[in-house]
Amino acid sequence: MRERNAAAEQELDAVRDPADPEGAPLAATLQREIREILDAKDRIPGVTKRGEFLYNFWTDAEHERGLWRRTTLESYRTDDPQWDVLLDVDALNAEEGEDWVWHGASLLRPEGAADGEPYRRALVSLSHGGSDADVTREFDLETRSFIPEADGGFVRPAAKGSLNWIDEDTTWVSTDFGEGTTTLSGYPRQARLWKRGTALAEAELVFEADETDMSVFVAHDSTPGWERDWIVQMHAFYDTTLHLVDREQSPPALERIDVPRDLEASAHRDLAVFSPRSDWEVAGSVYPAGSLVVGDFAAFRAGEPELTMLFEPTETTSLADMTITRSAVVLSILEDVVHRLEVHTRDGDGSWVRRDLYPELSGSLAVAAVDPDENDQVWVTVTGFIEPTRLLLGDLAPLLEGGEPTEPELIKSTPARFEAEGLEVTQHFATSDDGTRIPYFEIGRAGRAGDEKEAAGPSPTLLYGYGGFEISLTPAYLGAIGKAWLERGGTYVLANIRGGGEYGPRWHQAALKQNRHRAYEDFSSVAKDLIERGVTDTAHLAVRGGSNGGLLTGNMLTQYPELFGAVIIQVPLLDMKRYSHLLAGNSWMAEYGDPDTEDWEFVRTFSPYHLLTEGTEYPPTFLLTSTRDDRVHPGHARKFAAALESLGADVRSWENIEGGHGGAATNEQAARMNALMYAFLWSTIGRNDA
């Protein structure tokens, strides 16, 4: 591994910057520029409101591992908020001699929160080097210190799992309790109640999933007057059984919520929220897959559902996201992968009223409730490929009195990180092998059409995709990509292929298991469309993808090598015969199939490792992975690189020691990784003689 790293770095560090008259090393220049973007102090700090404070986790050049801090809304509104630092992770690492990476914190709601009683305790999660496995330690917000286990503090040892507050002396814990307590996917299968002062091993077992299930998740809803406890038995992705827990009984009793296993259900105050992923028939009505349905939770549990469909999908629309404030439901809807917002409120007789929300806003729109238990304020994030991100604050309360929501207040905005003058964003549709329209976004120089495009020649073009697990790819400010690629004359393309969620569950389900080939046909069809439209040619076209997207680009390399001038494969799945036996791989069989059964007949058709053949001319390839990746085993990338080397292919690989599945644990590591990647691209498809 270290030898391959050194070889890749020696090669890519030698690439010269064509924009520099003195020919400075390109990777060094890109690394500095990307690091400046990642460390910029004028980024928008993402915040979570708890009590009177807004909490944020922040990294920059001086705080590589980060600061956990808080401020007030009044201070946050200013250009220079006054932050109160709660935990310095860099200082913690120096003190403890560790390599902690922040994984988040959950705060205990005090009993007198409504009367202004401050939040005093938190559960902080930290991982070694960015791995999925982490530890959870109780933290005192007043003394700014961890509470040792010897002093009665809650401490969950390193494992995949979680620890969640119920009250000051009680938590839900789901973790590795020893032999037989994890699933075949390596996730916890037990949910236990853990009382302060008792050993973790003595925590009361409330529920145990099957070994073949994916995982168990536990949660406590602390909304005053609506406290609830949930256990989610996750059989596979989008296949769950939801249990409501009655802790008043001894032992605690579980009530299974009577919905199909592929339906996502939740509750907020009195409201039940249902998202069916296949057509759902209940009480004489049918609610289509991809819809959003709400009703009275108590009535539903009593077998008397009173349901209303707030959103019904069409051929071109899907529900991208939903947030619930104290009194309203806000929907973010995709129309051919373009966002719009709508808000739903109840009138005096309980019927639902729909309104468009902030129609003047354009771009990618994300909405989050500020404090869903206390008010109807929402954060609205607005962004685009070449438009810097803005954060606005709106109040929906006037809607409840028949008025209009307040005009959203601009709270924060970021400056441009790259030169966007002369760039344009366009959306196009390719036709896949079976005739399906596949949308994609193209970001590049304006005016490259017809004769002008022919005169300009093919543009170095980077095509990115994912196509799995119902994850949608939508416009977002390109930042480092803009600096390293667009500003230097490259074109960037984002493909919305099947397997994703851009058109709801049907778009995802269209590329599962034996139909996986559709995702690859879609992606290759976008590549062909770019060539046919004259945007680029094969010598100047590269693909990039990570994780499931690494499987995607691995299949581009092995199934369509003639289409591309370079291929980037990050933290990938590649050996699909072995994937289900490596780390979390067992949990993805609902997506890909079980290679230990007759499914192998179709799985082998998209297993890049098994599709490699002698005598094939493969384009230059760059594999990137992480030693600390405990989700997708780095062995996939290592084995594939070795196989390509044995075939005499043009391949290099780079493995970061830290980083987990994200590939990098710090901004410096991320900058280095991306600098090497773009140096590779400019030295292959970016060459004038490519």
What's the helix and strand layout?
Blueprint: H1 2-13, H2 26-39, E1 48-50, E2 53-60, E3 63-71, H3 73-76, E4 84-88, H4 89-96, E5 100-107, E6 121-128, E7 134-140, E8 145-146, E9 155-159, E10 162-167, E11 170-174, E12 190-195, E13 204-208, E14 215-221, E15 228-236, E16 239-246, E17 253-256, E18 264-268, E19 271-275, E20 280-282, E21 285-287, E22 292-296, H5 297-301, E23 307-311, E24 317-324, E25 328-335, E26 338-346, E27 352-357, E28 364-369, E29 377-383, E30 390-395, E31 409-413, E32 423-431, E33 437-445, H6 450-456, E34 461-464, H7 480-486, E35 491-495, H8 505-509, H9 517-532, E36 541-546, H10 548-559, E37 566-570, H11 589-592, H12 600-603, H13 608-611, E38 621-626, H14 635-646, E39 651-656, H15 667-684
Parallel strand pairs: 34-35, 34-36, 36-37, 37-38, 38-39
Antiparallel strand pairs: 1-2, 2-3, 3-4, 5-6, 6-7, 7-8, 7-9, 10-11, 11-12, 12-13, 14-15, 15-16, 16-17, 18-19, 19-22, 20-21, 22-23, 24-25, 25-26, 26-27, 28-29, 29-30, 30-31, 32-33, 33-35
Helix pairs in contact: 1-15, 2-15
Describe the 3D structure.
The chain is an alpha+beta fold and 690 residues long. It starts with a helix and ends in a 6-residue tail after the last helix. Helix 1 (2-13) packs across helix 15 and helix 2 crosses helix 15 (667-684). The protein is globular, with a radius of gyration of 26 Å. The model has no long low-confidence stretch (mean pLDDT 96). It is 19% helix and 34% strand. The protein has an 8-stranded mixed sheet, sandwiched between helices. It has 15 helices and 39 strands.
